[in-house]
Design a protein that fits this description.
10 strands; 8 helices; 204 residues; six-stranded mixed sheet
C-alpha cells in the first residue's frame, strides 16, 4: 500500500506527500526498506504529521521525511530494535542488527537534514545524550514531547519544524494552502491482506 501510494505521488506529480502518523511501531526490516528505497527516492517533498504518537518504526518513518510537524500533545521516539515476540535478542545478533540499522538510518537522516544524534538517542541506549534541557541517561532511550521536539537547539528546532492541529494546517505552513488533498486508501485486496496477517495464527 505504501509503495503503491508513493509511486502514484511521483507519477501524478503531487505537490507533496504527508504521512499522518499515529502508531506504536512496526516491523524493522520492512521499515528500513521503505526508508531506504521508496521514501529516499521520492521526487516530491514529504512531511510527517505526528498525530499523537510516532513510536519506534513510526519515529523512523518520520525522520525519513523532509520535515516533521507534531500535534501540540504528542510524542515521538523509543525506537530501539526488539524481537517481534518480545524475547531477548542474542547480544552478538543485536550488534549485527544495530550496526546495519545504524547505517540505514544514518544515510537517510543525513540526506533529510535531521539531527543524527537525536535519532540515535531514540534507537540505542549505550551512550548518554544531552540536547539542551533534554537529557538521556546511559541505558535510556529518547522520547520527545511535542514541545521538546520543536525547542531551539544550536539555532534550529531539535527535530520538528512546528506544532499543528491538522494536516491542513501543516500544508498551509509549508505554503501549499489551497492545494487539493487526496487521501490515499488501501484497495480491497490490501485490506484483506491486512486482516489475514493478523488472523493467520487463528487460521493456521
Amino acid at each position: 500500500f505504501m509503495r503503491r501510494t508513493l509511486r502514484r505521488a511521483d507519477e501524478e506529480g503531487a505537490t507533496a506527500v504527508v504521512f499522518d502518523i499515529h502508531t506504536p511501531g512496526g516491523a524493522a526490516w520492512e521499515t528500513s526498506d521503505l526508508m531506504m528505497n521508496e521514501m529516499a527516492n521520492l521526487h516530491v517533498p514529504s512531511f510527517a504529521f505526528v498525530n499523537s504518537k510516532a513510536m519506534s518504526a513510526g519515529a523512523l518513518i518520520s525522520v525519513a521525511t523532509d520535515g516533521i510537524y507534531m500535534k501540540p500533545v504528542a510524542a515521538i521516539g523509543a525506537a530501539a530494535l526488539v524481537s517481534g515476540d518480545g524475547s531477548t535478542i542474542d547480544e552478538e545478533m543485536r550488534k549485527k542488527i544495530e550496526s546495519a540499522y545504524d547505517a540505514f538510518v544514518r544515510s537517510v537522516v543525513k540526506k533529510k537534514g535531521h539531527n543524527l544524534d537525536v535519532v540515535r538517542a531514540m534507537m540505542f541506549s549505550k551512550q548518554e545524550y544531552e540536547f539542551g534541557e533534554v537529557k538521556v541517561p546511559m541505558g535510556g532511550l529518547l522520547t520527545l514531547t511535542a514541545e521538546e521536539a520543536v525547542a531551539d537547539y544550536d539555532g534550529k528546532p531539535l527535530l520538528a519544524r512546528g506544532l499543528v492541529e491538522s494536516v491542513e494546517e501543516l500544508i498551509a505552513k509549508e505554503g501549499f494552502e489551497g492545494v487539493p488533498i487526496t487521501h490515499a486508501k488501501p484497495t480491497g485486496l490490501e485490506k484483506l491482506a491486512y486482516w489475514v496477517k493478523y488472523l493467520s495464527p487463528f487460521l493456521i
